[in-house]
Amino acid sequence: MAMALLMAACKLPQVPVAGSQLELPAAFDKNNDTVSNPNLHRKQFFTSGVLNNLIDTVLARNYDLRMALQRIEMAKATSRQAGAALLPQVNGTIVPSLRKFGLYTMDGAGNIVTDIEKGKLVPVDLPDFYGGFQASWEIDLWGKLRNRKKAALSRVLANLEVKNLIQTNLIAETATAYFELMAADRELRVIDETIRLQEQAIDAVRIQKQAAVVNELAVQQFEAQLLGLKSLRVEVLQWVNMFENQINSLAGRFPQAILRDTAFFGNQSLPVVHAGIPSALLQNRPDIRQAEMELQASKADLLSARAAFLPSLTITGAAGLQAYRTGLLFRFPESIAYNIIGGLTGPLINRNAIKAEFAKANALQQEALLNYQKTINRAYLEVDLELKKIRNLQEVFEFRSRERDVLAESISVSAELFRTGRASYLEVLIARQNALRSNIELIVTKKNQYLSVINLYKSLGGGWQ
Questions:
Q1: Most exposed: 24, 57, 86, 309, by fewest CB within 10 Å?
Q2: Per-residue pLDDT tens digits for 310-346
Q3: What is the DSSP-derived secondary structure letter of residue 257?
Q4: Residue 4 located in a structural domain
């Protein structure tokens, strides 16, 4: 039998060689930074005290983050459970029983002529009282249990990285919604100012109508444009409500007003983020570290599944007090009972179950490796995209700033020409429409600049520190 077990152990499946490591480019596109600053604390990155207080509230109350903390506790419990399998298991037991052997058996035939005590035969109905300890210990000869513990510990670390990833995303989502909200507020101020000027223009057109300079159609066109502005204002207000509810949802609370730093959006320069070298992503991004921990766990699972093909050594034993009546239980040493058994067991025939488990563990390891490489690839592309977006948005902002200045000047020019009869009312309307559009587009561009910097900070792994 021992020879059969050894021969079966020789037929171990080979652990496949993992695929090659994904090689990252030496640098990001048109980026010469060698120092990355995603480790910069978000309170230094976001200089608005109002925004930082809001993020503090979100991190303290968000449901997803709180659930992630509970998943970490579950992973820790699983790890402790895997570690406990390496130690002997000892149980206390009390077992009262009653036995009757058939008289045509060795025990039954022997008992009817045997004294259990001096001058007293063994009863036909034999009581049995046992109290003591039972122990069992699987000695981890081949690392099966140790690798299970390694896998469980790796999954604890993976869950910690999930928590860090959720925190990073929450900070970015809160900051994004906050800047969206302030941009909408700024659009409202531009629309309100445009409505005020439009009402003044309507009064002027009505005076010109009375002087027979223009007709009723001109008045109606100006009034229609005013109604369009008021409609646009209501739409922007709805966007304000949506962004406020989005922030309240992140903070796990019911609708309430969001405090704003009204001067921050227009006056604050964009935060500076140094992208550094691509290899820094491996240490900074929580999703990459999570994928790495999952890969390590899958490797440990594969080694544990391979060890299942080998014989396992289990030692069991028991020690306690045993007697046929309770009055004799504490009579020493006669009532002491013990046993110890060592067994070597291994699969010989029909090993399909452990073969299937090994194949499954192998496939899971390959999947974890591919996911790790995919996560690195996605991280690089996200950083590359945001770097290019920041550069392009800066050019867009410069062009739109100049456009806004030109169109702002065109309003006064068209009004003066209209007043002197050298321009039609349609030219005035178009100039006002273009100026409003230009102002809103400039606000949106500035907002998008902020959002791109926030996304770059997140893409580099900032925010969880």
A1: 86
A2: 888 999 999 999 998 888 888 888 899 999 998 888 8
A3: -
A4: no
| Alpha helices by DSSP H, 20-126 | 42-45, 49-61, 63-84, 106-111
Residue 333 shares a structural domain with residue 452:
no
Is the pLDDT score of 5 beyond 50?
A: no
> For residue 418, what are the contacts with CB-CB under 8 A and spacing of at least 6?
424, 425, 427, 428
Q: In 85-143, which residue ranges form alpha helices assigned H by DSSP?
A: 106-111
> 236 with 187: CB under 8 angstroms?
yes
**φ, ψ at 413 (rounded to 5°):** -65, -45
Which of 345, 364, 399 finishes a domain? 345
Continuous H helices in 140-270: 144-210, 216-250, 264-267
Express each pLDDT in 393-437 by its tens digit: 999 999 999 999 998 898 888 888 877 778 887 888 888 888 889
In a domain? residue 2: no
Q: What is the pTM of this model?
A: 0.85
206's CB contacts (< 8 A; 6+ apart) are 219
Kindly provide the residue ranges of all beta strands, DSSP E only, lying in 287-422, ordered along the sequence.
Answer: 312-323, 336-345
Residue 320 maps to which CATH number? 2.20.200.10
Over residues 239-248, the pLDDT tens digits come to 999 999 999 9
Residue 3 lies in a domain: no
Residue 274 in 3-state DSSP? coil
Count of domains in the chain?
2
**Would you call 136 helix, strand, or coil by DSSP?**
strand
The tens digit of pLDDT for each residue in 62-107 reads 999 999 999 999 999 999 999 998 899 999 999 999 998 888 888 8
Domain match, 286 and 208 both: yes
In terms of residue numbers, what domain contains 118?
Answer: 88-139+312-345
Same-domain status, 364 and 298:
yes
Q: Which of 10-19, 32-41, 232-241, 412-421 has the highest mean pLDDT?
A: 232-241
**7 lies in a domain?**
no
> Same domain, yes or no, for 172 and 270?
yes
Can you name the residues that pair with 339 across neighbouring β-strands? 318
Phi, psi of 41, rounded to the nearest 5 degrees: -65, 145
